[in-house]
Amino acid sequence: MIDNFDAPDGPSIVSITDRVKLTPLGSGVGSVHFLGDRAFFVGAEETIAIVTADGEITRTETHFGAILCAASDGKRIVTGGDDGKLIAIDAKGETSTIATDAKRRWIDNVALHGDGTVAWSAGKTAFVRNPKGEEKTFEVPSTVGGLAFAPKGLRLAIAHYGGVTLWFPNMAANPEFLEWAGSHLAVMFSPDNKFLVTAMHEPAMHGWRLADNRHMRMSGYPGRVRSMSWSAGGKGLATSGADSVIVWPFTSKDGPMGKEPAMLAPMPARVAVVACHPKNDIMAVGYSDGTVLMVRLEDGAEILVRRTGGAPVSGLAWNAKGTLLAFGSEDGDAGILEM
């Protein structure tokens, strides 16, 4: 593990750009995921590029058209497309079709549960399929904005206009509704299952403490929050949407209520993507000007991974061991750093 972080007020940022294995992909990157020690760069359309740590590239065709969403549980990646298909990709790069929407509607959200259950959405309808192939559906009042499984139990959060619906697919009980005005476009549970957080269409986030559904307002962003990542152990939630990484504290039973967030790694460009290290209090940050930094959460110390220049960073991911970091950009530039 790299540990020679410079002090945030030091004369210069430590650079390890020469240690990055550059792998230009030739087409834009939508997101990045690791299966084992291979990085899977999900393209904006049709193709996934699979890259080894030494830069060898293979490609897998998936959808006939745009890839609209992707999620990974470390064992497989599941993607949804505007062809109405939900496709799984395994660690060998082999694909299989999980579902095809009967009306050929866009599959624009997907989430994976640790037991192999998969959820996806088309329009106002959320679908859940368990490992046995049993499928259930639930319709919310407006188009689904985001999906997330709780870390404990089989409970699915469905974000939509006006709030979030919490649905237990295996129970007959009525779903629980968490109300908050506005359009909710992404949703996440905290790793300890105590909080639920959404990113909104407006430049703000909202949250609920699940024990009593108390509201948590997280506002003040200059732009929309498009990327969120929990730090190791769930102590903080790192977010994009500003020219610094905004990190909300979740160490107390009240979460961020009444507390100011940390503002780390300020740059002249907007933060585009954040990805916290799986084991240590470090995060990777990609900016709209192409810069990639590693930042220590404790004091904001920085290491330069990719220099300024080029298209916005659109994907960042660590492997499960935290020994590899992959990044990709909107113009197809990509790289892998071995720690």
Describe the structure.
The protein is an all-beta fold and 339 residues long. 0% of the residues lie in helices and 53% in strands. The protein contains no helices and 30 strands. The protein has a seven-stranded antiparallel β-sheet with strand order 3-4-5-6-7-8-9, with no helix packed on it. The radius of gyration is 19 Å and the shape is globular. 45% of the residues are buried. The model is unreliable at 7-11 (pLDDT under 50). Keywords: Repeat, WD repeat. Residues 278-338 form the Anaphase-promoting complex subunit 4-like WD40 domain. Pfam families: ANAPC4_WD40, WD40. This is Anaphase-promoting complex subunit 4-like WD40 domain-containing protein.
